[in-house]
Design goal:
By secondary structure, the chain is an alpha+beta fold. The protein folds into two domains: about 150 residues, Glutaredoxin; about 150 residues, Galactose-binding domain-like (Jelly Rolls). Helix content is about 15%, strand content about 30%. It has five helices and 20 strands. The strands form three sheets. Strands 8, 9, 10, 11, 12, 13, 14, 15, 16, 17, 18 and 19 form a twelve-stranded antiparallel β-sheet that branches. The protein has a six-stranded mixed β-sheet with strand order 1-4-3-2-5-6, covered by helices on one side. α2 links the parallel β3 and β4. The longest helix has 17 residues.
């Protein structure tokens, strides 16, 4: 199948607008992603490594940034992310899913590998198979330029593809009423409502206490408080917990965390967790993005309590870690 044209993006970053017909003779990797998707973020180091290793050998990587949440459509947010992550390859803002639809895509992340003649030769959805993908990149590069000597695939791809064991964990959990609901919910959606936490909590569910406004895509804290009395409580089983949260441009605020009733232990804290002078664990919410809360936890059931005083606090979705590298016996 011949690759469709790259039309419909609202803005190109790191490049002038590109057209597929102008890329004939090159190998093209179109990577569909969005900057709050944990699966996309896990593949990002490999995409960057391939750009570094093969760009000057004829590989053109195009990151088609197709938003899941409204704030991901804002150019400033995407630009801030690609600057922080030092992404140097072209990124097109596919805000209306026109490129996504042209490729008949349905997944984040998704990779379409296109040969020198403009034909899609390989597709991959989700994470993994990094060495296999890289070998296919090499194959198409050599087809385009038989004189190339490329050697072995990157060590990071080889290591990542070593046996991992994946376990059943809490599934991705959306907070907005379009795709999920608080377990102690009501039908008072799209307007502030006072929630009372349940005395019993079920695994893989979340609960609200206090004044919240449940929107289609997120939950917003609906009042200003002073003692962190309102909270969202999640019961989960996973090695890792991430959450997409949003801060407005006008305000930054802390979201305090308790794991099973205590501050998050440093042994399992996520990369975005900090501690105040009293030893309480919190995440400073400074921009709309995914925050890493918990890492390297056991696979028992745990409760995570999140509390915030700000009425600008918005929580969109939780994602989890199901796999880990098993050490050789």
């Amino acid at each position: 199948m011949r690759a469709p044209e790259l039309k419909g993006g609202v803005r190109w970053l790191n490049t002038v607008p590109l057209e597929m017909k102008e890329l004939r003779g090159k190998v093209v990797l179109v990577d569909f992603w969005t900057y709050t998707c944990i699966n996309c973020l896990r593949t990002l180091p490999f995409i960057k490594e391939w750009h570094k290793r093969y760009h000057d050998k004829g590989l053109e990587i195009i990151g088609a940034h197709t938003p899941e949440f409204t704030f991901e459509k804002e150019e400033a947010n995407v630009l801030r992310f690609i600057t922080q992550e030092k992404i140097e390859y072209p990124v097109v803002l596919d805000n209306f899913r026109e490129i996504w639809n042209r490729f008949a895509n349905r997944y984040w992340p998704a990779k379409f590998l296109i040969d020198k003649n403009g034909f899609i030769r390989y597709t991959h959805f989700g994470e993994g198979d990094y060495a296999k993908i890289e070998r296919f990149i090499q194959k198409l590069l050599v087809e385009a330029n038989p004189s190339l000597q490329l050697g072995e695939v990157s060590k990071m791809a080889q290591e990542a593809d070593k046996a991992k064991v994946c376990y059943p964990v809490t599934p991705e959990t959306y907070t907005g009423f379009a795709r999920g609901l608080p377990a102690n919910g009501s039908r008072a959606f799209d307007k502030p409502f006072h929630y009372e936490d349940s005395p019993e909590h079920l695994l893989n569910r979340f609960y609200l206490q206090g004044e919240f406004d449940v929107k289609p895509a997120f939950v917003r804290h609906a009042r200003e408080t002073s003692n962190f009395e309102d909270y969202l409580l999640l019961v989960f089983k996973s090695f890792q917990v991430n959450v997409v949260m949003k801060a407005s441009d006008a305000e930054r605020f802390p979201v305090y965390l308790e794991l099973d009733g205590y501050p998050v232990d440093e042994l399992v804290k996520g990369s975005d967790v900090e501690y105040d002078e009293e030893g309480r664990s919190y995440v400073p919410v400074t921009e709309p993005k995914m925050y890493n809360l918990i890492s390297n936890l056991d696979l028992e059931a745990h409760s995570l309590k999140m509390s915030c005083n700000s009425s600008h606090w918005e929580t969109y979705a939780f994602t989890f870690g199901a796999c880990r590298q098993e050490k050789a016996a």
